[in-house]
Amino acid sequence: MIIENYEFPYSAFTIPGNIKTFDDPSGSNSTTTEIGYSKNHIHIGGNGINPKTIAIAGSFYGTTKNDDYESLSKHFAYEDTKLKKLYWEADKFYLGIGQNCKKTHNSGRTNFIDYAASFKVLIGQLFSDTQKTGTIASPQTNSGNITTFIEEITGTITSGASDLTISDNLGNEIKIPNANLTTGQTFVLQLVKMIDSGSNIYVSEYNYATLNGTQTKSVQTVSGFGYLQLEASADTSDITISNLTSPQIKFRDGYSA
Amino acid sequence: MSFIINFENSTDKGSFETANFSYTDKLNLTNEAVINIPGSNLKARQVVTNGSSFEIKRNGVIELSGSVIGVTYLDGGGISARCKGFEFEASKKRVTKTIYQNTASATIFTAQINAFNSSYLGTIETGINLDFRIDTGSSYSNIFSNLRKKSDQDLEFDYTNKLINIRDHKGSSSSVLTLNDYIDISNLGFDSIEPIGNVITVYGKGDGDNQIISESTSGRNTSSITTFGEIEKPIRDPTIMSVSEANRLADILATKYGSELKVYTFSVNNPSQDLVSGDVIIISAPEKGILGEEVRIVGIKRGMRNGNEFLELEVTNKEYSELLKSSDKLIGDIQRNALDNQTYMQGTTNTLTFTGQINATSAAPLRIVGNLTEDFIEDEAGNIRVNSFTVDYDIDPFRSSVGTATASTDPGLDVNGTAGDSSIESDQGSDSASTTLSVGWNNNELAEGVSGSFTYLDIAVIVEAGFSTSSDIKLILEIDEFSGVKKEYFIKGGTAAGTVLINDVLRLPVFSSTTSTIYLDVYTDFSNFYDLDMSITGVLDLHNHDSGSYDTDSHGHTVSVGDNVSDESSLNATGVTIYVDFWNGSAWINKHSLTSSSTLARDVDISDGGTYPDVAGYWRTRIFTNNTSADLVNGIMKVKHSMDA
């Protein structure tokens, strides 16, 4: 298992040895309303997943056991201002934040450091380690088994006189009004980013958009929930973009866990 | 986000960490905080007391400062402090009565903030010119709130420097950020309510028919009326002193209240947002039908709950821009309105009447003079508050018992009050003699010169006996050359020396002479020594008795308008001309005139469309008939005015 930072510098740490226990629950984020005295009931769902907490436990041994534990605890307990990638498989990871880490001391196991750690998953799915970059002309396909999120869109504002609009095939659309745009600006839209809100306290912001490197807070949700997504087996030609020159659409295949 | 909370009083000061506190930033309202300090803390109990100053800093910037107004002591030594922003002091202090006319709102704000606390005077943006009334029942807080509504500006409290600023628009008037549901905000509540009102009528000072009321052409939001139909909303503000101010406020409120009211409440997922009340933002929540809606922040509440920072906003559509009021706030508003209604003069009315009656012609009018003093017809600001200026008149057939109007040339106005008196007496002198009267006529025994024009001469005569006798005596007094002025006296026997035999007044009517001598002739049938005294008084009186005769039967002078008791059988006049004059201190100046073909009328408007009276002083109505032959003219000049303090 590997844990590393989502953004550079990655500072990857490969947990040596096998994880002894790995608890990875997935629950749907839905609502069921009972109809009294009835066999049928009302269900409301949106393909949501309850916030996941992944718990792992294992041991470090040998001459590196202390260094190993320090690397583990740093990722899991001391850097909650950074998004992390926790690799479940060699090529798939969870995106989240280290929550806590502890080591236990058992008599008779002086050669071992037993540890337990937990990881809070911010987005309830696995992402492929490979980031794909597609364009309208050269689309890339979501090869995963579930709908995935568009991770990043980049381009250049074509005209400051028109709105910038981006939509997917799932009813989600966002826009930036032209009043906030200037022709030729470099545009970057990121799915999620940890932002310093002051005094080194960080907040996760979704649909983090910049124009010429400066954050703009003018992104409006026009329809849906505002998160651009790609269905399984769909490609980036399903993403509709207006007023952006040379757009590039980056995503990772999405997998259930 | 880092928060620092400080308290200070005269004995101590300190900073406190707490995981539970909240504070507000409300548009145009007093801000408050609730700070819960856990644990038994002697220092906290010493420094967190009523009246202690406090400040809350976020990231090093003071976001709220003021005073502790209440402390609750809890189990385990916990303290909950209820605090208000420094602007709360303005609600505790009463104002000085002041009237402003056509004054810049910036001037008024500056004066009132200086009067409240000059150290709080900040930036005052221009605003408008208006009339503004301040009464002693109001607090400074009331005044600031009332004035800013009329000038359509916002109050801004600078907590870092403790200043009160007046802004045309507090916060950013263009959108500072966009908040999307499910991304940036959660727990979004959205209420849409039909307009509060799009036909606004403002009721100002006064009551009843004379209340200041906005005109029907003002206070109309036509686009709202087209969409929603007419929704009438009365607004009561007893501080409004003029129709123009009522109209202005009605127009402001028609814009504010004429739009559909939209209220949004939500939690902001990133509580570190730097927002202030008054900022315009865009919110988007397609699921709730909200697409890029520009709204204005009217209330912010932030702080920490159980160690988690939170940020909650209340926003409305930009036109409304008011925080929805809690029940406490509504009760406070009701109490304030009641206080305003009690303390601001409502202005009842009074009618002054001045009456007159005389036989008048087309050359000699009925004159009715009235003193319209400042105390009656002007309000506290010097404005004329006359609601009507009218005359009732009635033309009846000539009546001899009533005087006849003087010539058409204006008599001057004698403000000492002798003009129009029913009689004026003039002492013409006296004469006396002690003499022996022979039996028979003794002519010219006394004489006195008289000059002037009088309605009559009163000649007082005293005759004393210079003898004693038991005989009866016959005496006759006569004014020489006026044989009609004669009296006989019979004195029974038993006269002693010094007895007053005669003490009487002979009246000689209609005397007019530049110089003349009044002679007293005395007849006696008892020759002896007598003492004679004569004193003459000239009397000028309005009451001429009949058009040519000086003899009259007794008669009364009481007449009422429309009375049918007359000496003539029919009217000579068929109409009147009415003049309205003003005494400028040296002469009567005619201000207005009108004619009428009626011989009986009530409530004839003599104000010339509300122009007169335009100043306090002596005003006069002259009523001429349209006939050279006299008719009895009755008139009542009436002035209805508002009453004021």
Structure description:
The complex is a heterodimer of chains A (257) and B (645). The mean pLDDT of chain A is 88. In chain A, strands 1, 2, 3, 6, 7, 8, 9, 10, 11, 14, 15, 16, 18 and 20 form a 14-stranded antiparallel sheet that branches. Chain A has a four-stranded antiparallel sheet with strand order 17-13-12-19, with no helix packed on it. A two-stranded antiparallel ribbon of chain A has the order 4-5. Chain A has one helix and 20 strands. With 257 residues, chain A is mostly beta strands. Chain A has one helix at residues 65-77, and strands spanning 2-5, 13-14, 21-23, 28-33, 42-49, 52-61, 84-89, 92-104, 112-121, 126-134, 148-157, 164-167, 173-176, 186-196, 202-211, 214-216, 220-223, 229-230, 240-242, 244-255. Chain B has 645 residues and is mainly beta. In chain B, strands 1, 2, 3, 4, 5, 6, 7, 13, 14, 17, 18, 19 and 20 form a 13-stranded mixed sheet that branches. The relative contact order of chain B is 0.11. Mean pLDDT of chain B is 84; it is low at 414-422 and 543-565. Chain A binds chain B through residues 175, 177, 195, 197-199, 201, 203, 205-207, 217-227, and chain B through 1-2, 59, 175-178, 180-184, 269-270, 272, 282, 284-287, 291-292.
